[in-house]
Design goal:
With 277 residues, the chain is α/β, with parallel strands linked by helices. It is built from nine helices and ten strands. The chain folds into two domains: 4-131, 3-Layer(aba) Sandwich (Rossmann fold); 134-272, 3-Layer(aba) Sandwich (Trna Endonuclease, Chain: A, domain 1), CATH 3.40.1350. Helix 6 runs parallel beside helix 7.
Length: 277
């Protein structure tokens, strides 16, 4: 397993060391960030310490949260940079009420009630990461996994291999949201699943999904779920196509899919085996 970089305020140093000791007990290499999370904190220097596949644990507390300006540097570009390098970000909320918006899309561990027990959960989470290896699955296992995950994510009316307008789609589903007036609305999703053993998701997969969406009512949105990552050419094509065709396609690649799956220990246990949570 790759290393774990732990960033923290100097006043949270003991907690950071405690986590480091727990990780080393299970032969997980950890590195304590010598830069204090405070004014002048330089994310670029931190990025230089992170290699592909590493994990970045950020301890958020009343000592670091007041310095909210430091998180403004952690913008969309920074997230993409880490995502492309397969670096997972794991925020730990020790004290304080609000998590910076920059980290709200991540799995957040609450370390307030029982730090000893809660740090064990973080350790077990990191121990299970190597288990989520998509190469251990076959295409059918992967499709079954995605179907089960959608149920956990509260998708409704999930149907496999549904035929609409002479096209057969991998999965169709709906989710419910509330408009500004409080009215419940359904959003339809067309979901394509692509499993790759060697190559990356390419333009062909996106073109196919785009063609499907063009022929459907405008209240349909697309999701491409893959165990791989998009090629750079496919990313460029997707941005241009969304501007010209006004079609919305959400990409869940292997990096993001792994982070989502690790929230659901039952799925990790069923499809990959588990070292326990």
């Amino acid at each position: 397993m790759n290393k774990v970089l732990i960033s923290y305020s100097r006043k949270d140093q003991e907690l950071a060391k405690q986590l480091s000791y727990k990780l080393e007990h299970y032969n997980i290499v950890s590195l304590l960030d010598e830069f204090d999370i405070g004014y002048g904190y330089n994310f670029d220097k931190v990025f230089g310490k992170l290699d592909a596949g590493d994990f970045w644990v950020i301890i958020l507390s009343s000592y670091s949260l007041p310095n909210r300006n430091i998180y403004k540097d952690f913008d969309t570009k920074s997230k993409k940079q880490l995502h492309n390098r397969n670096v997972s970000i794991i925020p730990l909320l020790v004290s304080g009420r609000q998590v910076p918006v920059e980290f709200k899309d991540r799995k957040i561990f609450n370390i307030k009630k029982d730090p000893e027990k809660d740090l064990d959960k973080v350790t077990h989470y990191l121990r299970n990461v190597p288990n989520v290896d998509f190469n251990s699955l076959n295409p059918q296992n992967f499709r079954d996994l995605v179907f089960a995950l959608l149920k956990n994510l509260h998708f409704k009316n999930i149907e496999k291999e549904k035929k609409i307008s002479d096209y057969r789609y991998d999965i169709t589903a709906t989710t419910t949201y509330h408009d500004p007036f409080g009215n419940a609305r359904d959003l339809n999703w067309l979901i394509e699943i692509k499993f790759y053993t060697e190559s990356r998701a390419d333009i062909q997969s996106l073109r196919q999904l785009s063609r499907y969406l063009i022929n459907l009512p405008p209240n349909y949105n697309g999701i491409l779920i893959t165990n791989s990552q998009l090629t750079s050419t496919a990313k460029d094509w997707l941005q241009e196509n969304e501007r010209s065709e006004r079609i919305r396609i959400t990409i869940v690649d292997g990096v993001q899919l792994r982070e989502i799956l690790l929230k659901y220990e039952d799925l990790v246990e069923k499809y990959f085996g588990s070292q326990g949570y």
